[in-house]
Amino acid sequence: MLSEIAFYGALETGLIYGLVAFGIYISFRVLDFPDLTVDGSFPLGAAVAAMLIIAGWNPWIATGAAVLAGMAAGAVTALLNVKLNILNLLASILTMIALYSVNLRIMGRPNVALLTEETVLTPWYELDLAFHQVPVLLFVVVVFISLILLWRFMKSETGLAMRATGANPRMARAQGIATGGMIVLGVALSNGLVGLAGALFAQSQGAADVTMGVGVIVIGLASLIGGEALVTPSTVIRALIACVVGAIIYRLAIAFALNADVLGLQAQDLNLITAVLVTLAIVLPGVRNSVIGKLTRKKA
Amino acid sequence: MISASDLRLTFGKGTPLENPALRGMSLTVNQGEFVTVIGSNGAGKSTFLNALAGEVIVDTGQIIVDNQDVTRLPTHKRAARVARVFQDPLAGTCENLSIEENLALAIKRGQRRGLTSAVKKQYLGQFRESLSSLKLGLENRLGDKMGLLSGGQRQAVSLLMASLTPSSILLLDEHTAALDPKTAAFVLELTEKIIEEQKLTALMVTHSMKQALEVGTRTVMLHQGQVVFDIAGEDREGLEVKDLLGLFEKQRGLEVDDDSLLLG
């Protein structure tokens, strides 16, 4: 079984990937824009926050700067697509590749340690909580605030225009919505959230690393799809809750798989487990529906 | 008032598939007119409508809506003046948004959208009232997803959405063609009612010559990207489909003559 520390560790990373899943929900689901920029904007957020913290900035302001950096990266991807008519997937791959160089430039080396620096977590350690519980508490607050703000935004006039842009661009244009502008805003927002996740991850792990973004898109998608399988995303609020639930369940499943000695899995099997979990998350809802279908038919 | 003059547009210019869709198309629609547009396949009806809406930008020519030159403006910048209902009943609404959210999108057509709540309480009364005029019971289903509605119901709501805010012209692109005859009749009746009640200026493309003569105040026939005839008022009264066919045949004959003249 899971130790207490492994459990809280899974919650901690699960909450951070909940933010990533919010971002992926905006790009993949709301805008129907398959965006891989996140593999670059996650370490970008980490790099920007880490370097500014080392330079003596307030960690919250450094985190805010990481959000802006993520938004800028997203805007680049969207502009490549909207203004230069580059296929959305390809545009995001171009930005992602470019960000690898950018991140190395920002940090000046492949990784930067933050262990002795003051981070957004530092003041929270004075609370009467166990060491491994502190990040969970802070990230619950951050995820909750992000969820409420995103939910309100999606219900606003601009948010509704963004949802229409993804669902039916021709209709959106006929209603006077500048669909190109909506794509730029949405992809920027999405990567801003991923930049925030990267900044928080670096601060809780005590380091920023140029390779920390590898596979973020897959983990985010796994969280999104898994969450949607568990919480039917019939409304915006349910879809956002699904992101968080999916991300936490995913991290718990990974922690459980790695901790269960009977399975004989090791840390290097992580990507294989991820791929299997994503496949299951995609296939299982269909299986569930057909089983339910068969059962109800028998009754009838 | 809307005025299109000498619109020319060629698709696939410089390729073997070069297709001149509009060849000097001119039409002026006055305030309060309800023009029906007919023409065979490839006559340029849809292209003309798309050019007015901004979905395609013409090569040359000029489009004026209420004294403003909109020739080069994209769709979303014309939307405040140009309302539209599509042929495909699924195209005019968003199926994964609720009925009230679709109406909330339409009530802000062509206006700035901010960060205040999209579905405002003060709209709901107006939404219910307009929906109840459809007599489909939709006024009690504001929160339902649009995708739950039938094609006819969705087209009726599209029509309502197009008339929720004032426009200089309402474009109807064969909006009853994809519906079964009974539903098509209902939507057409609704169209006439809305246009009459709100004194809208409208342009309706149709495939049915009968429909083109029965509704509206003026009928225009397109052929090969041009207006070939334009009838209104007394000339149009009592005109039947066979008269229209006669006019059309006569016109086609002339076209053949033109070609033979060219070849000769």
From TrEMBL, chain A:
<keyword id="KW-0812">Transmembrane</keyword>
<dbReference type="GO" id="GO:0005886">
    <property type="term" value="C:plasma membrane"/>
</dbReference>
<feature type="transmembrane region" description="Helical">
    <location>
        <begin position="6"/>
        <end position="28"/>
    </location>
</feature>
<keyword id="KW-1003">Cell membrane</keyword>
<dbReference type="GO" id="GO:0022857">
    <property type="term" value="F:transmembrane transporter activity"/>
</dbReference>
<dbReference type="InterPro" id="IPR001851">
    <property type="entry name" value="ABC_transp_permease"/>
</dbReference>
<protein>
    <submittedName>
        <fullName>Putative ABC transport system permease protein</fullName>
    </submittedName>
</protein>
<feature type="transmembrane region" description="Helical">
    <location>
        <begin position="89"/>
        <end position="108"/>
    </location>
</feature>
<feature type="transmembrane region" description="Helical">
    <location>
        <begin position="239"/>
        <end position="258"/>
    </location>
</feature>
<feature type="transmembrane region" description="Helical">
    <location>
        <begin position="130"/>
        <end position="153"/>
    </location>
</feature>
<dbReference type="Pfam" id="PF02653">
    <property type="entry name" value="BPD_transp_2"/>
</dbReference>
<feature type="transmembrane region" description="Helical">
    <location>
        <begin position="207"/>
        <end position="227"/>
    </location>
</feature>
<keyword id="KW-0472">Membrane</keyword>
<feature type="transmembrane region" description="Helical">
    <location>
        <begin position="270"/>
        <end position="291"/>
    </location>
</feature>
<keyword id="KW-1133">Transmembrane helix</keyword>
<feature type="transmembrane region" description="Helical">
    <location>
        <begin position="174"/>
        <end position="201"/>
    </location>
</feature>
<comment type="similarity">
    <text>Belongs to the binding-protein-dependent transport system permease family. AraH/RbsC subfamily.</text>
</comment>
Automatic annotation (TrEMBL), chain B:
<dbReference type="InterPro" id="IPR003439">
    <property type="entry name" value="ABC_transporter-like_ATP-bd"/>
</dbReference>
<dbReference type="InterPro" id="IPR017871">
    <property type="entry name" value="ABC_transporter-like_CS"/>
</dbReference>
<feature type="domain" description="ABC transporter">
    <location>
        <begin position="2"/>
        <end position="249"/>
    </location>
</feature>
<dbReference type="GO" id="GO:0005886">
    <property type="term" value="C:plasma membrane"/>
</dbReference>
<dbReference type="InterPro" id="IPR003593">
    <property type="entry name" value="AAA+_ATPase"/>
</dbReference>
<keyword id="KW-0547">Nucleotide-binding</keyword>
<keyword id="KW-1003">Cell membrane</keyword>
<dbReference type="GO" id="GO:0016887">
    <property type="term" value="F:ATP hydrolysis activity"/>
</dbReference>
<dbReference type="GO" id="GO:0005524">
    <property type="term" value="F:ATP binding"/>
</dbReference>
<keyword id="KW-0813">Transport</keyword>
<protein>
    <submittedName>
        <fullName>Putative ABC transport system ATP-binding protein</fullName>
    </submittedName>
</protein>
<dbReference type="InterPro" id="IPR050166">
    <property type="entry name" value="ABC_transporter_ATP-bind"/>
</dbReference>
<keyword id="KW-0067">ATP-binding</keyword>
<dbReference type="InterPro" id="IPR027417">
    <property type="entry name" value="P-loop_NTPase"/>
</dbReference>
<dbReference type="Pfam" id="PF00005">
    <property type="entry name" value="ABC_tran"/>
</dbReference>
<comment type="similarity">
    <text>Belongs to the ABC transporter superfamily.</text>
</comment>
<keyword id="KW-0472">Membrane</keyword>
